[in-house]
Amino acid sequence: QCQLSGLWRNEQDSLMDISAVRDDGNFKGTYLTRVTLAGGCAHASPLKGAQQQPGEGGWPTFAFTVRWEKFSNATAAFAGQCFVDAAGKETLTTMWLLREAVGSLTEDWKATR
What we know:
Elements: E1 6-9, E2 15-18, E3 26-33, E4 43-51, E5 61-67, E6 74-84, E7 90-100
Antiparallel strand pairs: 1-2, 2-3, 3-4, 4-5, 5-6, 6-7
């Protein structure tokens, strides 16, 4: 069984700390990103999400949003799945979308990555 709660580190050395997943699948935590467009130091931002409760023998899927605080006018949405290998190592795989605020509708084309 994969446990989503806890401290996670990604390939860019960012950290995600997820509090206990509630019985209804909801969770919250913080995301400390080391990757910013402006460069500089790491910044912690709040995250909120939900885990789909897995069926027997299944690996849970989940989604969460991060509201970047103090350094960016953007929001990111992540969706992924948790896996456990034969050695017991837990791994999260995710895809993400980042939406930055732009000044006009004509600039909308460059707002989502």
